[in-house]
DNA sequence: AGTGTTACTATCAAATTGAAACGAACGATA
DNA sequence: TATCGTTCGTTTCAATTTGATAGTAACACT
C-alpha cells in the first residue's frame, strides 16, 4: 500500500490503517496494554521472528504509539512504553475483541472484568452525543470541501 | 502469520486479527458500509490491484463478513453484500476512525453525522455494564482454565 | 462489426516475511 | 579466568505476498 496517499486521504479510518492494518502491530499493542515492555517479552508472547519484532517496534515508536526508554546503562537496555496515543488505542482493541468474542468465540476465551466492582466488561461503541449504539441509527457522511 | 495458531488462541483480539489485521480488508469493509457492492466500485475507490481485490473479497466472503449475491444471470454478475457479522464490524471501524481523527487529524477530514438529529457523531467505547469509558477504570484479565 | 462494461485471471518483478544462525555487551557462576 | 546465560538485537537467505500490467469472457449497445 502507498502510505503517502493514505496520509492525505480525508477518511480518518484510512489514516489509521497505515499501522492499524497490520496484525503484528495490533498484537504488540495488545501485549503492551497487558503490561509487557521488553523485546524478549513480546517475542516470547507472540512467537514472532526477531526481524519482524524489531521493525514493528520501530514503526510503532516512529508513529508515536510507543516510546523507548532506557532502563539500564550497563549494559544498554531499552523498554517500550505506551504513549498517550498508544493508551488511547485501547478502545479499538476492545471493540475488535468484542467482535471476535461474538463471531469467533468457540472454545475458551480470555475474559475482562472491571477490577473495582467485579462485573465482566462488555464493550460497546456509542455516540457520545445521542448515547445510541453505533450502527443503530442512520448516518450521514459529509466530505470536506476541496481546499 | 500462522492462522492455525491464531484460531485457537484464547484471546478474542487474536481471533479477529486474522482478517482485521489487514489494511485492504478494513478499507473494503469501510466502503461496503458506505454502500459499495461491486468489484469495480471497490477497485476504483481503493485503487487496489484486481488480483488483491479478488483475494480480499474471497477471504472476507469465506470469513462470513460479506456474501456474494447474483444480481444478473446474463451475463452472470455478482455483488458483495455485508452479512450480519460484517455490519457488526462497524463499531470497530468507527473506533479506528475516532483514533485517527484525534491523532492523525491534520487537514480536511470526512465527518459523520446522525442523520436524524444532525449532530456530529463522536464514537466512544464504553462498558455497557458500568457505563464507564473503556480505559478509565482498572481491568482484571482472567485466563480460561486449561481444558 | 465495433465499442463499452463488468468481473475477473495470468504473468511476473519487486517487496515483505519468517526461520535460523550469529553477535555484542554485560552479569553471574565455577 | 573461563564459561554460561540473558537481553536485544543484526545478518542472511529462501519462501511468500504484493502490485502493476495485460489479457479474457460474456454479454449489451449502436
TrEMBL record, chains A, B:
The keyword Transcription regulation applies. It comes from the Bacteria. InterPro entries: HTH_HxlR, WH-like_DNA-bd_sf, WH_DNA-bd_sf. Pfam families: HxlR. One of its GO terms (molecular function) is DNA binding. Keywords: DNA-binding, Transcription, Transcription regulation. Residues 11-108 form the HTH hxlR-type domain. PANTHER family: TRANSCRIPTIONAL REGULATOR, MARR FAMILY, TRANSCRIPTIONAL REGULATORY PROTEIN. This is Transcriptional regulator, HxlR family. It comes from Propionivibrio dicarboxylicus.
